[in-house]
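hi support,

uploading two proteins for the ticket. first:
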Amino acid sequence: MKTSDFYYDLPQELIAQDPLEDRAGSRLLVLDKKTGEIAHHMFRDIAGYLEPGDCLVINDTKVIPARLIGAKEDTGAKIEVLLLKRKVNNVWETLVKPGKKARPGTRISFGDGLLVGEVMDVVEEGNRLIHFEYEGIFEEILDQLGQMPLPPYITHQLKDKDRYNTVYATHEGSAAAPTAGLHFTPELLQEIQDKGIDIARVTLHVGLGTFRPVKVEDVKEHHMHSEFYIIDEEAAEKINRAKENGKRVICVGTTSCRTIEAAADEKGHLRACSGWTEIFIYPGYHFKILDGLITNFHLPESTLIMLVSALAGREHVLAAYEEAVEERYRFFSFGDAMFIS
């Protein structure tokens, strides 16, 4: 299976640069995973595709303003730092640009010294371990100095930081948003619950590894980066109950999907747990829990389009993407949605 098998042609102008004013006002392409049949709707109609007893799984991670612009203390040269993973004692694993200016011992000042970082070490993929010094509360300083880490294909400035988080974002720790969840409003979630559909909240802190390009031609040689997840007792119980009752488990986004598939035992049963996952789902994978998926449209040749193809079949997915292009759907993080049923 080749990476190039998951390529499709996307006109640049279809990449959504700004979120819609109405979160639920995006379009919804509905794809039948068995037949490949396609229907076009609006996202606010999603409750009509869910049935009482189904379980909707959402990822309640919260994106932090993890992009920091600073300057080297000795030369004043501009340096950009993206926080990836919190380690211990104010040490973070980071992505630094330009990396050649960030050798161990380099000190970087942010906000005229409100926050100072010292490069401790160079680790996997050229990432830097940085120790931060500050007075006060780190999260408050980050909120003051940091910017949302928007993907490189979004070139517009985000006016409202909250629009790169879901309305149910709770646990801080992500370097990127679980974007399928951006379409939900509190009213839509209430409508879904009123219909008798359980909503299970899991947490997976999204790292940039999910979005890194696949650089190998043979898909099986690609290695996913690890991401931290949590499934509590209540979420496990709701998901298990739906399966036991013959109802569907529908994940909002590939991150929710990867969380439950990574944590499930071979019989498709979940228990409360937490840990790190490097699960890579591509065609040939046998889903243990997932029945349906609400997702956005993903980059060509990405691990995300491979996951979607594992669920609905590569031919069905690429045909649906081709139709979405013809119908001028909006693509990627701030784009339209797809429901694979």
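and the second one:
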Amino acid sequence: MDTTIKIQVYIFLTSLYGGLIAGLFYDIYRINRYYFKPKNIATIVEDFIFWIGVALIFFYILNKSDWVELRAYVFIGFFMGGIIYLKILSKVLFPFLIKLLNKITTVIKKIINFIILPFKYINKKASPKLRRLKRNKGMFKEAIGEIKRRTSIIFKKK
């Protein structure tokens, strides 16, 4: 094979690879939307960030492979990579990532509950005493307020 054809095949394969990476980036974006369910403005901002990320991936791959020479096969490779990812790999990877993140969040919640457990116990034991203390503190403040009110009434009389 001629060296220019080898280079063009290499560029095509790297653009195909870039499409696969963009597809993975899209799955990460879908997972983010699956868990956080953003509202209208947040969706617009996330879409903007997604497309900037895809453009950065595209131009980084182009810069590393063919010094940003735009050819038709570069776009074809990029779109083919994205379609291959979405039609084949995403069907396997997306549910796997969802299950993995569900398990990770379950483990994190259990760790947090384990860490918080002693504080819940202390709060449960101390809360009746704290309520009594707050009630006594409130009665003390009320008594001071009554004393101030009555002394001001007494001193205003002539």
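thanks. also noticed: The chain has one domain: 3-127.
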